[in-house]
Amino acid sequence: MAITAGIDVGTGAVKAVIMRIEDGTEEVLARRVGRIRRREIWRVVDEVFGAALGDCDVDRIDYVATTGEGEDIPYG
Prior knowledge:
The structure is a single chain. The protein has about 80 residues and is an alpha+beta fold. It is built from 1 helix and 4 strands, in the order βββαβ. The chain has a 4-stranded mixed beta sheet with strand order 3-2-1-4.
């Protein structure tokens, strides 16, 4: 079983998803979106990713993929 996360940092919003992959089956555990609206991107990423983590009961993340401006965040 693997727990993976994806974070997309766009120009207007940050999106995060956390998934469980087991025996070829994928299950979305949490999904969150947050608008940037003149806020610092890293703060929005922390808010959105933290909320997604709070929505699911996992004790580890095996892999984090980032897209968009994701190279600017510390999770990738």
